[in-house]
TrEMBL record:
It is a peripheral membrane protein. Belongs to the ABC transporter superfamily. Pfam families: ABC_tran (PF00005). It is found in: Cell membrane. Transmembrane segments: none annotated. The lineage of its organism: Archaea, Methanobacteriati, Methanobacteriota, Stenosarchaea group, Methanomicrobia. It comes from the Archaea. GO terms for molecular function: ATP binding. This is ABC transporter ATP-binding protein. Gene3D superfamilies: P-loop containing nucleotide triphosphate hydrolases (3.40.50.300). PROSITE patterns: ABC_TRANSPORTER_1 (PS00211), ABC_TRANSPORTER_2 (PS50893).
Amino acid sequence: MHLIETRSLCHAYSTSTEDVLKNIHFVADERQRIAVLGPNGAGKSTLFRHFNGILFPKSGEVLIRGEPITKANLSEVRRFVGLVFQNPDDQVFSPTVEQDIAFGPYNLGLDADCVAERVDRVCEMLGLEGLRSRAPHHLSGGEKKRVAIAGVLAMEPQVMVLDEPTAGLDPQGVKELFGFLNDLPNSCGVTVIYSTHQVELVPEMADLVYVMERGEITGAGTPEEIFLQEDLLARAHLELPALPRLIRSLQKHGVAIDPAYTYHDAEQSFLKAFGKL
């Protein structure tokens, strides 16, 4: 049984006669790291909003642990699947950071001691201890993003869905955030699903990649399987990450070097190719 499964999912907004999601088949399992890639307008955000019942399908269905999402089980679904929006201003609204993080757990009906323990824990995990009394609207974009993630994580979901989590972050912020997200499956047992344009990081932090174009899933597989398909990447306006791109260029110039996608594998390929192993 999958944590999340969509079957022939289609969706159309009331302002349009055309489906913005078309026959989507998507699966997420325990402790996975799943990247969803595609150009703006491909339907990534619309798909994500189906995972916790913000949107409902025009046709097809969305299953959470094998059960369709209905109005009757919506609160349980939203406890199970936490969604972090691209713009943290759409999610962070309480007078202080601490109150914002506590909002979700209180809505779950937890007592004050349990809520306080969860707030303490996620503040430590995300480095927010010094910001607890601050007003969110005084924070930087990266700090707001961490507060939004902390508020969802404090509800202890089994799946975290993040819509363009690196939007507006500087390179150091991207590195720190992805380092944190990359560890969640092991540290907390959480499945992480995210959309991103940062293809360089995908080989390091995705077990499974979906590619979307014009409301359809046009590719699914491991990072290696996806990045071997140059036509697929070109149609989705995606570039091959720098390391495999460099290795392919060297191969075309006659250098005997093994393909690699992660930094560690690329290092081993270069050492082997140049006689250092």
